[in-house]
Structures are given as structure tokens and as C-alpha cells.
Amino acid sequence: MAGRHRLLLENAQQLVLVCGRGEEYLRREAAASPAVLREASLVVGLDGCIKAVGQADVIRNQFSGATFERIIDCSGKCVLPGLVDAHTHPVWAGDRVHEFAMKLAGASYMEIHQAGGGIHFTVEHTRKATEEELFNTFKDRLERMRRAGSTLVECKSGYGLNLETELKMLRVIERAKQSMDIGISSTYCGAHSVPKGKTATEATDDIINNHLPKLKELRLSGEIHVNNIDVFCEKGVFDLESTRRILQAGKEIGLQINFHGDELHPMKSAELGAELGARAISHLEEVSDEGITAMARAKCAAVLLPTTAYMLRLKQPQARKMLEEGVIVALGSDFNPNAYCFSMPMVMHLACVNMKMSMNEALAAATINAAYALGKSDTHGSIETGKQGDLVIINSSRWEHLIYQFGGHEALIDYVIVKGKVVYQNERCGTMSSY
């Protein structure tokens, strides 16, 4: 096939497709056996999409007359889909390292929250920060995520709790969408906490009557494009009825429902999400058996966050029960001032060790299923013809090293590629020739 193309990756020891037949998600047995090709190559076109995947000799013959902007010899290496981080809070000012010491001394999440720390501490600092300050720190965080293999990241607002600051955060996210080589799914999370001086009912009314109409207006004018709506459905924060009202109002203006539920207390969030047609629910440490069944039936993804359960010393989510019952299980880092982790390889490792997932299940959860949780599994999450050319190349002959080497991704990852363009190259691989 003659013509000019953006990228040829050739002779990979393992080419981890994850999916081979256009699946939207993988669950049960399918999640335990992702598709892998050996001695394989792939081509990404000038439009950033994958044009061909197959055995190295077949691709070589098929593209014998073609030219490429870049060719990478992947002999002895593995190529995987770019990782998808399905839950992050990456736009904020003011870290909470002092609270980590409080937690180690025995303070609970809600005790810190009620003492004016937690979300409210970050809200105070984020309200004071300029848009430029927020963008610069956000950009640095996204670059660190990308170096760890993430090529699509869900990014929430939620440290404003007033319309002005929530919009400031969403503008920062929109700016990164337009200017950075990384996929972003943006989430309005104005119901992350009840603002000081308001009741939950007053905050709910403000969101429905003021925040959401403004978001709709800005989307129609093309200024801000928000993908998802999120609520922290939790005892002492937003109860089930307030959560229902906000999520329903968000759905009515075209936002996907993707919210925090059943984290610290059993709230019947999973049942509510299934009823409302939620795309995904995160946390679920305290989910009920009925909630698990409802999510499986509704094809509502469970975004599990092993870093959060680990750092807050919470009960681990019931990943095995969810997998066995047919829930679509995804993973996220929950990067935020309270759970400071940029690395999806470390998240996958913790999912395997603490939540008893297999490495195959963790990979599916951090690729195709995480993409499904964001409504993007038609374009992301696997290496298939027609999908976006988002890829990770690791310096190992077995892909499992990406999970097995806990904290080793900085030495292991050779290249991260978005739309066929090398956006990160390990220094041992020479200088960047594609910039």
C-alpha cells in the first residue's frame, strides 16, 4: 500500500491488541484473556488512526512502497494501547501533605473534612489561584501521567463549589484539550462537597438553576465542552435524592452520568446509577450485592480506585465479585491532593495485589473498559484498525512487566504515542526526532 503514513512500529515481540473484534468492553472470561499478536507490526496514518495491524511480514509486504514519517523497530519489545485513567481530580492549588500525616496518625477522611480540611482546604486555595497558575500545574501533572503511559484521562472540576471557580477549572481543562497531545474527557463536579454556608438542598438548587444552565450556554457557544456530570453521593455530603436531582438535570442537558458512589457508607448509589442509565460509578467500596447486580444488568461501568482504598485504609472494593457477576470493571488513579498518584501501571499493580484481579483483567480495566466508562471505547482502549493511534512501547519481551515492576515504569516505558506522534521518549532511546 503506497502513500505516506505517520508511523510504522515493526517487529514487536508482543503486540497487545486487548480487543480483536471491535468489542465495546470486556467482562467475565473475555476480560481474562486479552488478544495478543507475536512478531507483529502496525501502521498509523496521517490522520492519527491505525491503518493496519498484523504479522510483521504481512505488514512489510502490504506497505512495501509506502513512506513513513517515523519508523520504530520494536524487536524484543511490547506494544500496548495507551492507558486510560478513568477518574482524576488534576486541577487544583495547594497540596495536602500535612493531611497525610494526620491520616497516618489515625484521623479519618470525614474527620479531616469536618475540621475544615480535605476538599474545603483545596477549595480555598483553588479559588485564590489564577487561571494561568492552575493551567501550568495541570499541564505538568498531565505530562507526568503521559510519561507513565496514560493517553486518555478523565479530568474533573470540583474544587470551586461556586460557579466562578468551577468555570475557571473547566476553562483550564478545555485549554489543555485544545493545546496538549493527550486525550481528555472533562467532568463537571460542582457537587463535590457542600459549600460552606449552604445546605445540601441549597447547593443542589444552585447547581440545577445556575451552574448547569451556564454550562449548556457555554457548550452551545463552543467555549467549553463538558462530557460528564459527577456528584459525591455520600453521607454528610449529597444524599441520594439530591444526587438524583443533579444527575438527572445533567443528563437532560446531554452530559454522561459518571459519579462517586458507595465509598464511605452504603448509599444505594449503584442502584440509583443503574436506574438513571449512568455510564459509570466510581469507588464502590461499600456497594451492596443488589447494586452489583443492577450495574451488571445496566452495563454501568464500575471505576475502581485501588490507590484511594490503599491510602485511606478503606475496605477494598469487591472486584472479584463484580467481575464474576459480569460488571464492566474499569480502573482510575483518583489523582487528587488526597491520593497523589500519576501512574496507571502502579494502579494496575495495586488492583492485582489488593483487589485480587489478574494482570489480564487489570489491563482490560485500564484500557478498553476505562475507555468505555468515558464513552470512548469506539476510538480508544485497544489496538484495532480505525482506532486512534495511542500506544505505549515497553522495553520488555513480556507486557506483564508493566504491572509486575511496581514503580518501575520510568525505566520500562520507551515511548508514549498519541495519534501516531511520539509525545514521550525515554532518554536512552536517543533524541526526539518527531518534534
From TrEMBL:
GO annotations of cellular component type: cytoplasm
Domain Amidohydrolase-related: 79-423
EC top class, as a word: hydrolase
Catalysed reaction equations from the record: 4-imidazolone-5-propanoate + H2O = N-formimidoyl-L-glutamate
UniProt similarity note: Belongs to the metallo-dependent hydrolases superfamily. HutI family.
GO molecular function: imidazolonepropionase activity; metal ion binding
Known cofactor(s): Fe(3+)
One GO-annotated biological process of the protein: L-histidine catabolic process to glutamate and formate
Pathway: Amino-acid degradation; L-histidine degradation into L-glutamate; N-formimidoyl-L-glutamate from L-histidine: step 3/3
Alphabetically ordered keywords of this record: Histidine metabolism, Hydrolase, Iron, Metal-binding, Zinc
EC number: 3.5.2.7
Pfam families with a match to the protein in the record: Amidohydro_1
Lineage of the species this protein comes from: Eukaryota, Metazoa, Chordata, Craniata, Vertebrata
Name the record gives this protein: Probable imidazolonepropionase
